[in-house]
Amino acid sequence: MPEQQQWTIAATEQPPEWFIEAVKQHTPASSGIYAAQLLWQRGIKDDQQLTAFINHKAYQPASPFEFGQEMHLAIARLQQAYNAKEKIAIWGDFDADGITATSVLWDGLGQFFKQNTQLIYYIPNRLKESHGLNDQGIDNLAKQNCKLIVTCDTGSTNIEEIIYAKQLGIDVIVTDHHTLPAERPPVAAIINPRYLPREHQLFHLSGVAVAYKLVEALYQTLPNIAKHPLEDLLDLVAVGLIADLVQLSGDCRYLAQLGIQRLQADFQQPAAARRRPGVGRLLELCQKSGDRPTDISFGLGPRINAVSRIQGDASFCVELLTSRDPKRCNELAEVTELANARRKSLQKDVQAQVAQKLTQLDLSTTSVIVLEDAQWPAGVLGLVAGQIAQQTGRPTILLSTEGSGESGVGSGEEDSAPTPYSLLPTPLARGSARSVNSVDLYQLVKDQAHLLHRFGGHPFAAGLSLLVENIPLFAAAINQQLRQSLGSTTLTPTVQADLTVTVADLGKELFLELKLLEPCGMGNPVPKLLIQNCWFENSWHRNQQDWQGKKVQYIKTEFDIRDDSSRSAFPGIWWGHYKDELPIGRCDCIAELDYNTFKKRYEIRLIAVRPSVNSALNTRNGLNAPRSLTPLILDWRNYPTPHSLLPTPPLLLEDCPTNWDDLRAWLRRCLMISRSKSGLDNQQQLAIAWSKPNLQPPNQIWLTLVGIAKYLSRTNQLVTRVQLLEKIGISDQTLLVGIKALKDLGFTVKRQDRYLQITWHPSDNAENFADAAVARFLAAVREEQFQRQYFAQVPLSTIVAIASSDNYMGTNF
After folding, report:
1. Contact at 8 Å (CB) between 277 and 325?
2. Peptide bond before residue 185 is cis, with ω within 30 degrees of 0
3. Is residue 605 scored above 80 in pLDDT?
4. Are 333 and 316 in contact (CB under 8 A)?
5. Among residues 532, 526, 502, which one has the least CA distance to residue 514?
6. How far apart (Å, rounded) are the C-alpha atoms in residues 58 and 50?
7. Which of 97, 252, 341, 695 is paired with 19 by a 20 to 30 Å CA distance?
8. Cα–Cα distance for residue pair 306/295, rounded to 1 Å
9. What are the pLDDT digits (tens) for 152-208?
């Protein structure tokens, strides 16, 4: 279960009137106030910045030769290959950024070198070879008489492999955006924006954008050779940029803007006339039109990524993106769609298994989550790790020991830098890591390099492999390292809202206003809207189905949202959740405003929801409460209790119950007090305010109970039942089972007034005789702890539903 989220609202600074008027020029159908507030928050504070941000025609992109000497060296080596008619291999990567980068070089360099004879490409198998260059692949290219390798989205840290290629007479040009090596590798050229100053407009380029810049430089150097315009590559650039989640600023934003326009224009053509029929077919299968960044981040990107996650070999994806044969592209698109359906199913299965393992962790003492399993497929671990990191607020590392003994990272992210193992024992665990809360995950992993076989990545994502026997050491070390760096800072899952709006604000006008900020991504996230004191109606959920009608275990809830601002409801969806998870009554939510091209409607996409502290929660007949009623039940679990702010203090239930009867007793008490008052406004409230229980292992509780009993016997002291309960942390009913077990162990327990006297008469066979009684006590403790964990996390809607079913709000109570 996810921990209680911390909600924050972005710091608001009212933009000046002149700025609001300037924004309004770009959105004449609305006031422009919301877009102006967001742009001002995000550092756009003058006319020149505003114009360049919104209108790509006003932006001046950087020359590819801003990369300096390295770009000149790369172009010179390509010209040498052109003149000598050498064979060139593009060495790509298997994720969406790497596949699109390979496709850009395949189409772009293909204007200068004949495809399939002078120019070939190589995509490593995700499940066998991992990221980056490898000797086996280089041997393969050497046998084909390749004299030059051009990498894309990979290669910066593959020093040993680059040296090996050079020994075989193969030069290497690296185009990449990942971690830089300590020293320049022995390459013909290395084009990596990380060599540039951080504020440079090219610094945040992804792999596909760096590849594009290389092709752009070649177009400018050999201007009369290419037959197709350079702009034909921009749609692929946009797909890779947005799918790779790089910061969309500078040239990244400019290229993404142009590419999305190109993508949409091609999709609007008849299927037979499309320049990229494979991309068009993928958009059709995911019911998108290509005009939104989310069509890539939620549509194209996951489908391209799914192929290597499921099949390992994603080489055909380059053909899917670049072929002009509609029939062949349709076939490949359908294979891709099937891989994505399989990925969804596997991801959900692994996520459920990880959630189960999380229940055995004490997150209050865990800074980095490290979990392993022999059955987990390596290809989906990065996706699940990202979900768990978001839910828990902690960096998450998931490791698979499936197929132990292989020598690759497999599920890792980015280039893998080997540690100096001379002989590597087996078996190996391979895994993926994802960060959250601005924790530099790559540095955390790098500092444990002595325990790893290979690793690589960037601050937000990393891949690694290590000996299975090193996992406990690694987990302990990386946790200690992060705890020391955090100091007193607490990691909690956080969601931030950018704007506060009402249901009346939602719709086309606000959507078009917020669309000024697109394309959104890192550094310019999709605006998140806080809607307060709202409620949900007409909710329903269903399993999503794949394109062939086969069921996939992927849940989507649809609903209508309402508040006091409008008589009309507004539609919305909540991916991955059941309708029963929506709170009953008044609540607050954070959502994104979207346009559903399939249903042709504006809707919200729910991000987070929780009951309002002053929400109305009347559950008569299980319906949403009339707005005039005050709340009956307040959910203050894991919150500071704000009862001093309310006119009538609620009853506080601070001890986590272990059964529904305990909770019913408190609800009865509320109702009795309410009936003694006049008017609904004086209705007594119940605040459930218990904290997440800190549970000890049952064996430890038994040993503590025995130790206390022996101490009381030795000192001849008396003890009250309450003192025992507080010391051991169990319920009355479980304590009775424990006392019976003590008696079987040779203790005598006598009652004196309100005290207990415990004496011990040990015998040789007492422990054997007590085994069954102790087992019953341990079972009772485990059952009680299960109940406490359940009530610590049970949704408020379930509590309200139980209250409704027992007629707590009616006369039959």
Report:
1. yes
2. no
3. yes
4. no
5. 526
6. 10
7. 252
8. 16
9. 999 998 999 999 999 999 999 999 998 888 899 999 999 999 999 999 999 999 999
Q: Find, among 391, 426, 408, 421, the residue nearest to 463 by Cα.
A: 408
Greatest mean pLDDT among 107-116, 643-652, 800-809 lies in 107-116
User: Look-up: residue for tokens 């119950």?
Assistant: 657
Question: Mapping DSSP to helix (H, G, I), strand (E, B) and coil, where does residue 118 land?
Answer: coil
Which residue's structure tokens are 């007090």?
673
Question: Which of 105-114, 468-477, 711-720 is the most confident on average?
Answer: 105-114
Q: Give pLDDT, residue 424.
A: 47
Nearest to 708 by CA among 662, 751, 749, 764: 749
Token pair 């009775």 is found at 736
More confident residue, 405 or 487: 487
* Spatial CB neighbours of 32, under 8 Å, sequence gap ≥ 6: 20, 21, 23, 24, 26, 513
> CA-CA distance, 810 to 795, in Å (whole number)?
22
Dihedral sign, Cα of residue 116, residue 120, residue 121, residue 125: positive
| 383, 425, 575 from 474: Cα distances, Å | 21, 17, 34
Give the whole-angstrom CA distance, residue 202 versus residue 246.
12
Size (the chain), residues: 813
CA–CA separation, 451 vs 235, rounded Å? Answer: 42
* Residues β-bridged to residue 307: none
DSSP conformation class of 379:
G
Record the pTM: 0.72
**Mean pLDDT in residue range 415-434:** 63
Largest alpha-carbon pair distance within the chain?
104
Residue type, 665: A
Q: Retrieve residue 800's tokens.
A: 């309200």
Give the range among 68-72, 462-466, 599-603, 631-635 with minimum mean pLDDT.
631-635
Q: Say how far apart CA 665 and CA 226 lie, in whole Å.
A: 81
The closest alpha carbon to 696, from 788, 776, 774, 767, belongs to: 788
Amino acid at 138: I
- Pairing relation of β-strands 570-575 and 747-752? unpaired
- At 415 the pLDDT is 43
Strand pairing partners for 772?
A: none
**Phi and psi (nearest 5°) for 245?**
60, 40
State whether the Cα torsion 263-264-266-267 is positive or negative. positive
Single-letter code of the amino acid located at 408: G
Q: 60-105 pLDDT, tens per residue?
A: 999 999 999 999 999 999 999 999 999 999 999 999 999 999 999 9
Pairing of β 718-720 and β 755-760: antiparallel
Q: CB within 8 A of 435, min separation 6: which ones?
A: 389, 395, 441, 459, 460, 461, 462
Give the whole-angstrom CA distance, residue 479 versus residue 194: 29
Please, are residues 435 and 395 in contact by the beta-carbon 8 Å criterion? yes
Residue 220, SS3 per DSSP: helix
CA distance 305 to 102: 14
Residues 6 or more apart whose Cβ sits within 8 Å of residue 467: 425, 426, 427, 428, 429, 453
SS3 351: helix
Local structure of 546: helix, strand or coil: coil
Q: Is residue 348 within 8 Å of residue 384, measured between CB atoms?
A: no
Backbone φ and ψ for 791, nearest 5 degrees, come out as -70, -20
CA dist 138 and 166 (Å) reads 10
Rounded distance between C-alpha atoms, residue 420 and residue 437, angstroms: 32
